[in-house]
Amino acid sequence: MKxxxxxxxxLGKSSTDAPGPPDPHDPLEHAAxxxxxxxxxxxxxxxxxxxxxxxxxxxDGVTGTxxxxxxxxxxNGPEQARDANEIPHADGGPHRRHRGIDGWRAVAAxxxxxxxxxxxxxxxxPGVPFHLLQRVSGPLAQIGVQLFFVxxxxxxxxxxxxxxxARGHVSIAAFYAxxxxxxxxxxxxxxxxxxxxxxxxxxxLPGSSLASSATFTCNLGFLDxxxxxxxxxxxAVEEQFYLGWPLLFGVLPANRRRWLLIGTLVLCTVGIAxxxxxxxxxxxxxxxxxxxxxxxxSPGLRQACLxxxxxxxxxxxxxxxxxxxxxxxxxxxxxxxxxxxxYIIFAGNALGWVRTILETRPFQIVGAASYSLYLWxxxxxxxxxxxxxxxxxxxxxPVAVCxxxxxxxxxxxxxGRHLSRRFETAPA
Length: 428
Known about the structure:
Layout: E1 3-4, H1 27-38, H2 48-52, E2 57-58, H3 68-76, H4 99-121, H5 128-137, H6 140-167, H7 172-199, H8 207-214, H9 227-230, H10 233-251, H11 254-274, H12 282-297, H13 299-307, H14 311-323, H15 330-335, H16 337-350, H17 352-358, H18 361-368, H19 370-380, H20 396-425
Antiparallel strand pairs: 1-2
């Protein structure tokens, strides 16, 4: 079997595109390569290529964290063996998921579920411990959704960077095919069920709320979105992001993309500071998306986050995120939300003990089903008074989520990938 240099390729390259040694000038490769060569991530990368190029492995066709990366694990521990925030590659093989990001999806969905359960479905449970839980969980729904936004900005931008690096351009048609097949089918199923319940008189669903949700305008405040579709305000934010950012990404050079994101983040921060107590603020939401996208597009930011990743700093950031909203300094926490969440996610992925927790089986199961869980929890965790009759049994929530994931989500995700490949290979 032929020997060659191989490493997990950087964004924009597949394992078959880049048979050479790790590129020390690519930040995702350099972050791990320089730990092996010098023990720390630093800027003097001039001599890293020759050192890292000394590592070879048998070409067994595997894309992953082997070869020179495995030597990093021996030298510096498994948590530093690779850039923990690098998106797994699926070119030419099974579509792999980013286990750390799936873990954070589980955290985000869990925050929303806990907050809605203790504050709406079971608001009158007696006892001091439960009242304390209600107070602590109050901000969790907002924090959970903002976690989703940072992840979305990072993932979407990273995948576009990879596609541009591999093909020289981003196929807008392929992007929208994947997004539409990912978002719409589970959402349409949810709409069908709540409309059927409304027709049967089990719930009350104003037509104006459904119209605002279906047109992805719940976040704009034109019409009031009733409880049953109120959570789709976050989908409205995401769809508006999908409409604008891929188009701008395709026409702007790299340096202007970065400055656009920086400008967006600055403007959103000013907007948050102007009105820090607005619930579900668009400034906060788009600021979090911009922060995630900027992390994907900025080598300097990624390296700074890796250098700043330590257990004391990470725990302090988590405490500030979760506990500060309960104090008189809650406005400060809201202003810092995009920056705090970005640091917590990506520095957390770089800490071995955090990553180990995120990659456990329960987190992976919930993370993989997080979209359907987010959709269907709204139907089962409403305040009892919102149901015309008896509240829906909570035992049906996991059933609804499983049916949504296996019968709708996964088949349509596969369809989206198939359509995406057809658009990507179509002649220009």
